[in-house]
UniProtKB/TrEMBL annotation:
Residues 932-1040 form the PLAT domain. CDD domains: PLAT_RAB6IP1, RUN1_DENND5A. This is DENN domain containing 5A. Residues 810-832 are annotated as: Disordered. Residues 769-928, 1109-1257 form the RUN domain. SUPFAM superfamilies: Lipase/lipooxygenase domain (PLAT/LH2 domain), RUN domain-like. It comes from Sparus aurata.
Length: 1262
């Protein structure tokens, strides 16, 4: 999101404003309450309000001056005071101001100390000390220790208002006793000079400011008045054109800056090596992953410049993507409440160097990446996926770093870990860490106490030459290469930046090399595409992911859901031709084209081969730096009145506004009369390079496109009134609601896939990975909603903490005995509804989660609970119940919180209700190793006396993940509850009995199995006898089940679609029309549909396939269809004797095996087929299982399908003489053409590798 905006009217200047901030002696000392410092601090340590004292020029049209923002960011902690004993080193930092339209402007500030000359201020400070000391004295001399109370009161009062860094312990306060005495001490106060520029050139700006500061602190006055230099930088130094370098003059020496050409990566001038030095490659990569997945990121350091460098580096490395959300690398103290924002953000928080991380109360951490820059430490959100090829990637980055002498682990030991190629070095002295504005860790090489170095250091400060890390030998200082115009160190910094950035960019060009293929171009014109933006899919995610190597999926599936990816693709759709393309997109596309030319391998077959980065173009920079393209005008004397421009050493003068308020009239850079056409092209080029858009219309599109709750890029940096805060929060509430609407819609469209595709929206299917991604992002959204406006933070998950409060209050109420036992179950009354539905209980669902020992954290528990509620279709209902406890909500949330905005809350629950329309298995499929109780009921037929049944029944339940083994079922109740490891979705039940007792015949209607945690109930229809001499003589059967649709007893459910399964198709209709006899056409149709189901099954990605067993043995599956084939025209035998297909097959087997037959047909093929057929028949007949004739037929069909033999066997049987005896003339099996088409249909199964569930082939050793 490198938005520049100044180009609307074309700022061609290097800098827009020069600003001075500091103490306004007229208004005196105003304590800065907003910055949250506390008054027990000694007065020198408190913060006071700083003011913008002057800025030049008054205003530039393309970048209106924002006084509040500049003041806050130049001195984010207000004024700091020092005395002569404290360290007073100047400090440089940069900052960024993001406007409401997302455009940016940069600021570079140098803060230094000046002696306070105003008597009023000094005596005010003295008075504050007298008061402070008196207070301390009282506290110390009271008999009991009310210090505790004082501190508690204090902290209590603050914790209500904002995340608070607590007061320091009492001892250090004592040491501060009497630390300012007006008669003895000199008082100093911080002051800041700052350049506001349209583009970020930190190195150049740093030099300019340091030389200006040096001019006032050195004993000799500078060659020209300061006004001349400031006038020069404001009005006479242009922006370097792209691909060129520019040299201009500071007070003491030349300053060089250069800008990449349009074919290079965009401008980036911060020292990236420093980021790796501070954090180490591993941490940087984790932080980078969090940023790409749009988590909330909080950087923490006592150096403003570090916050800025890390933030800018991470966002620059994202090329070609851009951070789309709140971006505040330096969060002023008065905006701390902004950490409450329920949106993705990247913010930097200044630490005062003495409080540890635990003191920092952050409103929400479920989705937070916390980076403690100074301590080389990073805290990651849970369930962070790995960046693809992470190890090889780390290896490649490390090699680049090591070639520049930067350690890949980072520099843990030095408190000021500056990489050794850093050009500028300020001497950071040790100082009291508790200063207000400036941080100052020890400079690593002063530790050596080497006098030469100290002397050199002093020299450097006088002369303004920049010093490398001092080699004690100093030998390399002599043979400097004269050609290179900027410092070698700076060149090294640029080279390292380029190499590291190229390595990162290369990852994306490799990963998205063929992304264009998957961009869904809108069918209508841009206007209507734009208005329906939210409903449109702009990228074929499912197809793209199905091409990716498995290990990439967890990361990529989440990345494709981000705002930055969506915006990138939107850009692609909006810029068809190269002319229109924005800079970043053009550069990225040209690299992708290169890769595709190099990789002749088919672009669709993605491999996870790691391809290193090969194109690193550093030559361009060296060229630019060694041969300067442009030199700006030199500073010159201005037309000043006599006596103007004088100043005292050590004080930054009050500049003469009359000479600085307007620029030269005839300067070529500011001439407004250039031909408009030329100006426009130039502006567009500049604009496009820095930012992404050319014309206003596209600007409008992209700003609005997909504006999911990203209405706020940066808080309004003004003095915040309650109404401003309320308005901001209101924006958040609206954003959350919109995001919720879009998420639920996206998840439904995905889930209803098949129906949705016919309706013309959505992708064909959703993979397990993608479903997980969507649910994880729903969990994140819920966490953000629950942590918005929280009164007091408890635990890392706001949602779980609210649930625990609810559980506690309910359990107190029902502390009466027997109040909350598990819901009573009704005894089976033997009907099909043998199972009373599980009682709906939010608390019970929480208990299930609490009993899962594998889930250790609060965030994990909250996520598991959401998954379970989704699977039970109770999410909306549970949350409604949770929020119906208004007392509790009031106690936990501030008035402005989302959960206390009634209308929004209602709409939010309504959106969640729509999830009930589809089936999710997001709990069962994720927690695969947990123990789950199952309840089984066998339902015997009411018609025939089940009560006389004497044998002992058993069942064995199988699911997609595991099976139970044989479980005995008590004969009297016919139900059992058992616990075992998660079986996954249930597929089959094998059931049977041991044939004991007088009456061992049993007619079973069905078996019902229920998962007692998720409440999913499966019905396994049977409708057959089990017993010797009855039906087909089977003592056991394999039943195939399907998920029951719960009867909707509560009106809360929305309309449902039936569970995901094959559509009933023609067959169910035929069977209902003519139950006994199907004609040949209908039978062919049946076989076709059964085969079709299996073919479709194999064409789905593996993660989404349903149960193959259902397609083979379930209702209207392959076994049923072939049964119809063999029953058609089967001669019906005499009365009372049932003949089964198996009898016919056994006769055929006998015929084939008879010896004479062997000689009759010498055909080799035929003999192989016969051998196979007989071998399978024998194996099935010899099994120890009592599966009955129909069970055997089912087993034969399954094995034949597995080994691709069915079509051979049909051909064999059609020609077999036994067929002539046992079938009518009209039978299907005797009709040549019908048999041939049947064989052709069965042959389509040959290309699939069919794996049978263990329960289908148990006991057959083939």
């Amino acid at each position: 999101m490198y938005h520049g905006r100044c180009y609307y009217s074309g700022s061609c200047r290097f800098a827009d404003y020069f600003v001075i901030c500091g103490l306004d002696t007229d208004s005196g000392l105003e304590p800065d309450e907003l910055s949250g410092e506390n008054f027990e601090q000694s007065p020198l340590r408190r913060t006071f309000k700083s003011k913008v004292l002057a800025h030049f020029p008054e205003n530039v049209e393309w970048n209106p001056f924002d006084q509040d923002a500049v003041g806050m960011l130049c001195m984010p902690k207000g004024l700091a005071f020092r005395t002569q004993v404290d360290s007073r080193e100047p400090q440089f930092h940069s900052f960024i101001i993001t406007r409401e339209d997302g455009s940016r402007t940069y600021g570079f500030a140098l803060t230094f100390f000046e002696e306070v000359t105003s008597k009023q201020i000094c005596s005010a400070m003295q008075t504050l000390y007298h008061m402070h000391n008196a207070e301390q004295y009282d506290i110390l001399h009271t008999p009991t220790s009310p210090l505790g109370l004082e501190e508690q009161r204090h902290q209590h009062q603050h914790s209500q208002t904002r995340p608070m860094l607590h007061a320091a312990p009492a001892i250090s306060r004592l040491q501060r006793f009497n630390s300012y005495d007006i008669s003895r001490d000199t008082l100093y106060v911080s002051k800041c000079i700052c350049l506001i520029t349209p583009m970020a050139f930190p190195q150049a700006c740093r030099k300019v400011l340091q030389q200006l500061h040096q001019a006032v602190s050195s004993p000799q006055p500078p060659p020209l008045p300061l006004e001349s230099y400031i006038y020069n930088i404001l009005f006479e130094v242009p922006m370097p054109p792209s691909g060129r370098s520019l040299k201009f003059s500071g007070v003491y020496g030349p300053v060089v800056c250069q800008r990449p050409s349009t074919s290079e990566l965009p401008l980036f001038d911060f020292p990236m090596g420093e980021v790796f030095n501070l954090l180490g490659v591993e941490n940087v990569l984790q932080l980078f992953t969090c940023a790409l997945l749009e988590m909330q990121i909080l950087l923490y350091s006592q150096h403003y410049q570090r916050l800025m460098t890390v933030a800018e580096s991470i966002t620059a490395l994202m090329f070609p993507f851009q951070w789309q959300h709140v971006y505040v690398p330096i969060l002023p103290a008065s905006l701390l409440h902004f950490l409450d924002a329920p949106v993705p953000y990247l913010m930097g928080l200044h630490s005062n160097g003495q409080d540890d991380r635990t003191k920092l109360e952050l409103p929400q951490e479920a989705n937070l990446c916390f980076v403690d820059i100074d301590n080389h430490f990073i805290e990651l959100p849970e369930e962070l996926p790995q960046f693809p090829n992470k190890l090889e990637f780390i290896q490649e980055i490390s090699e680049v770093l090591m070639s520049f002498g930067v350690s890949p682990e980072g520099n843990i030991h030095s408190s000021d870990s500056q990489p050794k190629y850093r050009g500028f070095r300020s001497v950071d002295m040790v100082s009291d860490k508790r200063n207000g504005n400036l941080a100052s860790p020890l400079n690593s090489y002063l530790l050596r106490e080497n006098e030469t170095i100290a002397r050199l250091q002093a020299l450097v400060k006088r002369t303004g030459v920049s010093l490398e890390k001092c080699d004690l030998s100093m030998s390399h200082l002599g043979d400097r290469d004269g050609r290179i115009q900027c410092d070698e160190e700076e060149l090294k910094m640029h080279q390292l930046n380029i190499q590291v950035r190229e390595v990162f960019a290369n990852r994306f060009t490799q990963m998205f090399a063929d992304y264009e293929v998957f961009v869904i171009q809108p069918s209508h014109d841009k206007e209507s595409w734009f208005t329906n933006r939210d409903q449109m899919q702009n990228f074929d995610k499912a197809s793209f992911l199905s091409d990716q190597p498995e290990p990439y999926l967890p990361f990529l599936s989440r990345f494709l859901e981000t705002q930055m990816f969506a915006s990138f693709i939107d850009c692609k759709i909006l810029c068809h031709d190269d002319e229109e393309k924005e800079h970043t997109l053009r550069v990225f596309d040209s690299r992708v084209d290169k890769i595709r030319m190099l990789n002749v391998r088919t672009p669709t077959l993605r491999t996870s081969m790691y391809q290193k980065c090969t194109n690193i173009e550093e030559a361009a920079i060296e060229m630019r730096v060694s041969k300067i393209d442009h030199t700006a005008l030199h500073p010159h004397l201005l037309d000043m009145k006599i006596g103007q421009g004088r100043y005292e050493q050590g004080f930054f003068p009050r500049l003469q506004s009359d000479v600085l308020s307007t620029g030269p009239t005839s300067n070529k850079w500011t001439k407004r009369s250039a031909p408009a056409q030329w100006r426009r092209r130039d502006r567009q080029k500049q604009h496009a390079e820095h930012l992404y858009l050319d014309n206003d219309q596209r600007e409008k599109y992209i700003q609005e496109a997909r504006n999911l709750g990203t209405t706020i890029r940066q808080p309004k940096l003004s003095n915040l009134s309650p109404s401003v805060i309320a308005q901001t929060n209101w924006k958040f509430v609206e954003g959350l609601l919109k995001e919720c609407r879009n998420k639920t819609k996206r998840m439904l469209v995905e889930k209803m896939g098949r129906e949705a595709v016919e309706l013309g929206h959505g992708e064909v299917s959703i993979t397990g990975v993608e479903e997980n991604t969507l649910i994880a992002s729903l969990c994140d959204l819920l966490e953000r909603i629950w942590s918005h406006g929280l009164q007091v933070k408890q635990g890392k998950s706001a949602l779980w903490s609210h649930l625990l409060h609810y559980q506690e209050s309910k359990e107190k109420k029902s502390a009466t005995p027997g109040g909350l036992g598990p819901p009573e179950r009704r005894k089976s009354d033997g009907g099909v509804s043998a199972m009373a539905p599980l009682k709906i209980s939010l608390i019970q669902d929480m208990r299930h989660i609490q009993n899962i020992s594998e889930i250790k954290t609060d965030v994990g528990k909250a996520r598991a609970w959401v998954r379970l509620s989704m699977e039970k279709k109770l999410l909306s209902r549970h949350l409604k119940q949770l929020l119906s406890d208004h007392e509790l909500t009031k106690k936990l949330y501030k008035r402005y919180a989302f959960l206390r905005c009634d209308d929004e809350k209602e709409q939010f629950l309504y959106h969640l209700l729509s999830f009930n329309a589809v089936d999710y298995f997001c709990f069962t499929n994720v927690f695969t190793t947990i123990m789950i109780p199952y309840h089984v009921v066998v339902v015997p037929s009411k018609k025939l006396g089940g009560s006389m049944f004497t044998a002992n029944p058993w069942v064995c339940v199988s699911g997609e993940l595991a099976e139970t083994g044989v479980l005995q079922v008590p004969r009297n109740t016919l139900e059992i509850t058992f616990e075992c490891q998660n079986l996954g979705k249930l597929t089959t039940v094998q059931m049977g009995h041991d044939n004991t007792g007088l009456y061992a015949k049993w007619l079973v209607e069905c078996v019902m199995v229920r998962n007692e945690i998720t409440g999913h109930t499966y019905k396994f229809p049977c409708g057959r006898w089990l017993g010797k001499g009855v039906d087909d003589g089977s003592l056991e059967r394999i039943l195939v089940g399907e998920l029951m649709t719960p009867s909707t007893e509560n009106d809360e459910r929305m309309c449902r679609t039936p569970p995901m399964q094959q559509s009933p198709g023609m067959m169910r209709r035929f069977v209902t029309i003519s139950p006994n006899k199907l004609n040949t056409g209908q039978i062919q149709e049946g076989v076709g549909e059964a085969i079709n189901g299996i073919v479709k099954h194999f064409h789905k990605p593996e993660k989404e396939r349903g149960s193959l067993t259902l397609l083979l043995c379930g209702e209207y599956g392959l076994v049923w269809a072939l049964e119809q084939v063999f029953q058609h025209g089967f001669k019906s035998p005499r009365l009372f004797k049932n003949v089964f297909i198996w009898d016919f097959l056994e006769k055929s087997q006998v015929y084939f095996e008879s010896a004479e037959q062997r000689e009759a047909t010498p055909d080799e093929n035929w003999q192989t087929r016969v051998r196979h057929f007989c071998r399978f028949m024998r194996a099935i007949n010899n099994t120890s299982r009592n599966i009955g004739k129909d069970g055997k037929f089912q087993m034969l069909v399954c094995l034949g399908a597995r080994d691709h033999l069915l079509h051979h066997w049909i051909a064999l049987l059609a020609d077999c003489p036994i067929t002539t005896q046992m079938y009518e003339e009209t039978a299907l099996i005797k009709d040549r053409s019908l048999v041939n088409s049947l064989i052709r249909v069965l042959q389509t199964l040959q290309e699939f590798n069919i794996t049978l569930e263990a329960s289908l082939v148990k006991g057959v050793g083939i």
